[in-house]
């Protein structure tokens, strides 16, 4: 469920003045989930009057967002080079440029900070390579070791007063795997732009997309959005598509497209899949679709599921973190497994019953409204007020 406004950790900031805040992150921008969340946070904090400093590798904010940006120059890839590089260069930048309350986005610097936000707990999650070659698998194993080591070291060295988790499930994982931090855990759910992600919000864009992709007007469309396709379950979804031939699948996000095209070909569904790549037209994707499917093995919040729900789509998703708080099986969506037969059965049910799609999509929209981005910003505001207050 969504956090209570009476939460004693978050609830003492109404009418309180803004403070200076420094956000430390690898990247902030309009594409990909965590980067968009950070952009929304910075924009929201500025609207509340906070002076915001961003320290990161890249920062792309909407025009008119008056935030101070200090670039940390260095490589973005490969991860085994980029991650330790940023940890060292970013730590030096934070030491020189920090102002006010400092929040680091994950285990990325070695400075004393006031808060660390946890969008992904590497102690729990398993890495999946973007391609199946031995080089990518070796890099992925090395990256996993670096991430888990960096997480343990940073959570100890940074000594955050607050560990900000993006869902109740992540908060439980932090308490379990880092019990010394249990008393500092705060849950602030990610926020959705429920105006941009709304039924019909991009109707013209969706119509143009349907025409460009050559999808007939009467054809049912399922959307899959995200990268890390192995973890998010694209393979079982392609297998399910062969058992639900009335559906066309849109795949938005980055991955080993050649490999998955071959899987689609082997399943006999190559003509029923449209590959969009990483796109900033995701609202149009949701508006075009009749259902959203995500058979993921691990998520921390699953921002795309909440966006799809806010867009009024019938949701089929595994009961991972975040999804468990959004989807009540049979009422606000359908909880599935990674079994292709079960996914196909749910797709066939939705395909045969337009009223069911409408009912589940409307209920999903209502549930998603509790997770607006304004609330996310307000709760960060309250947290920063608490962290800035002098000890009593």
What does this structure look like?
With 392 residues, the protein is of the alpha/beta class. It folds into two domains: 20-191 and 372-388, Rossmann fold, CATH 3.40.50.2000; 203-371, Rossmann fold. Helices cover 42% and strands 17% of the residues. The protein is built from 14 helices and 13 strands. The chain has helices spanning 33-47, 79-97, 134-157, 168-177, 203-213, 229-232, 234-241, 257-267, 282-288, 303-310, 323-326, 340-352, 354-368, 373-388; strands at 20-28, 51-59, 68-71, 101-105, 115-118, 162-165, 185-187, 220-225, 247-252, 273-277, 291-294, 314-317, 334-335. Strands 3-2-1-4-5-6-7 form a seven-stranded parallel sheet, with helices on both faces. Helix 3 links the parallel strand 5 and strand 6 (162-165). The longest helix has 24 residues, at 134-157. The chain is globular and about 60 Å long. The two termini are 32 Å apart. The model is unreliable at 1-14 (pLDDT under 50).
Summarize the entry for a quick read:
By secondary structure, the chain is α/β, with parallel strands linked by helices.
